[in-house]
Amino acid sequence: MNARERWHRWLAAVAALLPQGRSGPRAAAAAGGEIPVRLMRRDWTRSPAPAASASGIDQPLLWVVVALLSWGLVMVYSASVALPDNPRFASYSPYHFVLRHALAIGIGAVAGVIAFQVPTSRWQTLANPLFLVAIALLVIVLVPFIGKGVNGARRWIPLGVMNFQPSELAKFAVLLYAAGYMVRRMEVKEKFFRAVWPMAMAVGLVGVLLLAEPDMGAFMVIAVIAMGILFLGGVNARMFFLIALVVVAAFAMVVLTNEWRRERIFAYLDPWSEQHALGKGYQLTHALIALGRGEWFGVGLGASVEKLHWLPEAHTDFLLAVIGEEFGFVGVLSLIALFMWLTRRMMQIGRQAIALDQVFAGLAVQGVGLWIGFQAFINIGVNLGALPTKGLTLPFMSYGGSAILMNLVAVAFVLRVDWENKALMHGGRA
């Protein structure tokens, strides 16, 4: 056998080692010229998945979240420190809200660490059961003597250390369910009734339960998450816009048929009128006064006047107004930039997962990006007077135990998907 024949036989042997009819990182590496080689009985092209460690996660994303949590903790204290002067909170200490907020961050951090250890494939398996649990909790919270009512809304289940809000779990459960649904229905995504109708029924059921609380803000976020995942999953564009029109029409009907919601819309359109300034437009007018007082660089940390019993819910829905008053236009602009970067990074991680054939993980991460980005957009818009007042908190920052908990679990899921992406790109396993 001459050298030429030996060379052809060696190439044939190498070709036999390559995977046939497969796609993914290994096949791509092989197509790029990476040939399996065995030296001293070791296959140098196969490497085990790296151990899950802090060094393998997206450090910039993690630190942006830590920055938002830290800034939020400081601002919750600043916005709530004077509340004990109000007879309604006379029994509370000045540190009541900030300590509970810090406890929620601690619980959320522990839950996030646990969630990070769960493989994406396991999350996909749990998507349907978790959705059913969320539905059950949305029903339970409506039961008298179980659900806790505040300001006419029954949205919380008392758990001792915190009041849990099932709608926050529903946001995470719906995005997992929608991502899993699109993976299962990928072959019929061009057919409206087979691809969209079952998902619409599921979201409609969640919407009915949320409107019974009532919590229209959470329903809006969930509807955007579900519709966004359907669109990103490849549903026909004409069908998508048809669905969008139906959803907008449904929300308009809900508003127009409810006198209380209709009055809030009119108050938003003219908050300074004599009719609204001391009524439905009271919060908005004082939020705008706070932002105006902040001017370019703010009045200084802790120096807000509007938080001194003028602006209701300053530590929850209207925390941004206090930030604007104390840090000014520069502070608000910096906050918007952080949320824009965070949303964009999550969408990038999702696209990367889809490119690696991890469709469920990619769509779910993009769903988290839609959740955080849209909710921040709504909260900021409400505080700036650009949108009607809705009871939506600022992610990672506003006071609220269950919101912080589920935000951190969602971020841990995103970090897990990013870690698995890196493992796959290095030839390991997710």
TrEMBL record:
Q: Which GO terms describe its molecular function?
A: lipid-linked peptidoglycan transporter activity; peptidoglycan glycosyltransferase activity
Answer yes or no on keyword Transcription regulation.
Answer: no
What is the E.C. number?
2.4.99.28
Q: Which GO terms describe its biological process?
A: cell wall organization; FtsZ-dependent cytokinesis; peptidoglycan biosynthetic process; regulation of cell shape
Its annotated pathway?
A: Cell wall biogenesis; peptidoglycan biosynthesis
| Annotated signal peptide | none
Record keywords, A-Z: Cell cycle, Cell division, Cell inner membrane, Cell membrane, Cell shape, Cell wall biogenesis/degradation, Glycosyltransferase, Membrane, Peptidoglycan synthesis, Transferase, Transmembrane, Transmembrane helix
The catalytic activity, as recorded, is: [GlcNAc-(1->4)-Mur2Ac(oyl-L-Ala-gamma-D-Glu-L-Lys-D-Ala-D-Ala)](n)-di-trans,octa-cis-undecaprenyl diphosphate + beta-D-GlcNAc-(1->4)-Mur2Ac(oyl-L-Ala-gamma-D-Glu-L-Lys-D-Ala-D-Ala)-di-trans,octa-cis-undecaprenyl diphosphate = [GlcNAc-(1->4)-Mur2Ac(oyl-L-Ala-gamma-D-Glu-L-Lys-D-Ala-D-Ala)](n+1)-di-trans,octa-cis-undecaprenyl diphosphate + di-trans,octa-cis-undecaprenyl diphosphate + H(+)
Enzyme group, top EC level? Answer: transferase
Pfam families recorded for this chain? FTSW_RODA_SPOVE
Q: How does it sit in the membrane?
A: Multi-pass membrane protein
Subcellular localization, per the record? Cell inner membrane; Cell membrane
Give the stretches traversing the membrane: 61-83, 95-118, 130-147, 192-210, 216-232, 239-256, 318-342, 354-374, 394-415
Q: Which GO terms describe its cellular component?
A: cell division site; plasma membrane
In the record, the note on similarity to other proteins reads: Belongs to the SEDS family. FtsW subfamily.
Annotated function: Peptidoglycan polymerase that is essential for cell division.
Return the protein name. Probable peptidoglycan glycosyltransferase FtsW
